[in-house]
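Forum > Structural Biology > Help requests

Title: Can anyone predict the 3D structure of Mannan endo-1,6-alpha-mannosidase?

Hi all, first post here. I have the sequence for Mannan endo-1,6-alpha-mannosidase but no way to get a structure on my laptop. I'd be grateful if someone could post the structure tokens.
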Amino acid sequence: MRSSLGGVGLLGLIVQSVAAVDITWSDPSSIKSGTSEVAYGLVKFYTGNNTGDVPGNLPDPYYWWEAGAFFTTLIEYWAYTGDTTYNAITKQAMIHQAGDDLDFMPTNQTRSEGNDDQGFWALASMTAAEMNFTNPSSSEPQWLALTQAVFNEYVSRWDNTTCNGGLRWQIFTFNNGYNYKNSVSNGCFFDIAARLARYTGNETYAEWAEKVFNWQMGVGFITDDWDVMDGAGNGDDSNCTEINGALFTYNAGLYLHGAAYMYNYTDGSELWRSRLAGLVNSTTRNFFKDNIMYELSCETAGLCNVDQQSFKGHLSRWMAMAAKMAPFTYDTIVPLLTSSATAAAQQCSGTSSDFKGTQGTACGFSWLQGSTWDSKTGIGEQMNALSIMITPLIDEAPTPYTSDTGGSSTGNTEGGSSDSSKIQQERAITTADRAGAGILTAFILAGLAGGVFSVTI
Ligand SMILES: *[C@@H]1O[C@H](CO)[C@@H](O)[C@H](O)[C@H]1NC(C)=O
Ligand SMILES: *[C@@H]1O[C@H](CO)[C@@H](O)[C@H](O)[C@H]1NC(C)=O
Ligand SMILES: *[C@@H]1O[C@H](CO)[C@@H](O)[C@H](O)[C@H]1NC(C)=O
Ligand SMILES: *[C@@H]1O[C@H](CO)[C@@H](O)[C@H](O)[C@H]1NC(C)=O
Ligand SMILES: *[C@@H]1O[C@H](CO)[C@@H](O)[C@H](O)[C@H]1NC(C)=O
Ligand SMILES: *[C@@H]1O[C@H](CO)[C@@H](O)[C@H](O)[C@H]1NC(C)=O
Ligand SMILES: *[C@@H]1O[C@H](CO)[C@@H](O)[C@H](O)[C@H]1NC(C)=O
Ligand SMILES: *[C@@H]1O[C@H](CO)[C@@H](O)[C@H](O)[C@H]1NC(C)=O
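Reply #1:
Sure, ran it for you. Structure tokens for Mannan endo-1,6-alpha-mannosidase below:
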């Protein structure tokens, strides 16, 4: 297993930042050319389009959910820059991973899949629909229908036997973490519901978005200060009172993004305006140091795991789109993204045998480190940098389309299937299978065992 945490950067220590990614931020063509270098380095990590490999999978140590995030990033990269280089591999991968039931539960992943793993692929298909990404042929899965299938399955999994409602982290009882209810699983549900409401105009989605958000607040995962805590419900904590208070950029980002869509969908309602303002406030308070985005719970201690090393990229893209959906947040959000983009570009100066892009352009993880490459390289680091560095193009990026404004994806409100039928069809798990949920399990359990996170009761 290649670790992003130690050792990999030895070469970098003796190489100065000669190449680097040098961008003139006032010039969109310079941003496009610089980010194309970062995208090239990112896609060099991908092996799924090689003969004999599985389209949509990333190599070890990257888990299946991160692949969903990877393709979301490539779709947004295309939408912001117009560079179509990676569209074909993206479309191939997303179709391949749709699974027999057209719901992002492919047989190879089902058994270990959590609601958040499935959600990160549904976020990719929702982005494809909103960006009017190339539609698959009519005999293939459709972006909107895939997202609706995941939404329908989330509805069927809403569980009020503990904690007064909410989605569990895990789908199946036999997986570690089944009792845990968490902000990321419910955040995927909330964000998808909010975006489906806006895309389709169907009020049922908005009602679910409202319900999930109210539950998050009621159970205390979103605090009075608008912090989004990680989750609760482990062991016999059936009221979700023992909350894991760790704060991560991706949790905050999901609610901030979904709230911006609800604000827009409700034509600027006071309710969603105040919720969004609160989330923007907490996000800027918690995850920026000297106006540069960072991963509060693990970055400065150097303890972020492989998953956590990709979270800032999601927050970057979600904040940018929130500024579009809710223009009143633009003046707060965009300057912070721009200063973070500048800092991130300075980290794209690494040289390492683990990096197959242009040497001297591997992006480090910590944007707080100035122009001295922090000697880390990997998909998370590269994806974060690409995500933040396209955000200064926000004014040229398309506003996410809806079915009324140019979105052309075909839907199916009846999509999805029952979880019990899936597990009966299951073949034996092989060592080649990737445990979608496994690594997320690892970080939560490590956190609860007294690792880096503070635990609030
Ligand atoms: C995989 O995709 C990349 C990026 O588009 C491309 O450069 C490469 O040639 C592709 N590999 C194969 C085997 O098709
Ligand atoms: C499932 O995994 C096996 C073993 O890695 C692989 O050969 C196969 O192509 C995968 N199937 C799909 C549909 O991805
Ligand atoms: C729990 O959910 C079920 C099914 O949706 C519903 O019938 C029941 O009234 C709910 N119970 C509570 C306490 O909300
Ligand atoms: C942000 O939150 C803090 C603490 O909750 C509060 O004191 C402050 O007024 C808020 N700022 C804005 C602009 O809402
Ligand atoms: C959960 O909350 C209910 C109502 O407040 C209380 O009666 C019950 O004892 C609590 N259960 C646990 C396990 O704390
Ligand atoms: C909704 O988003 C559109 C597109 O960016 C924007 O023009 C409009 O002002 C937004 N609505 C509100 C109420 O801010
Ligand atoms: C979306 O894609 C469809 C199909 O390619 C196309 O007809 C339509 O013009 C596109 N919409 C926009 C807004 O570009
Ligand atoms: C709205 O969405 C719900 C939930 O998927 C579905 O049952 C209903 O048929 C949809 N309504 C319309 C008019 O499409």
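The chain has 15 helices and seven strands. The first strand starts at residue 181 and ends at 182.
Shout if anything looks off.
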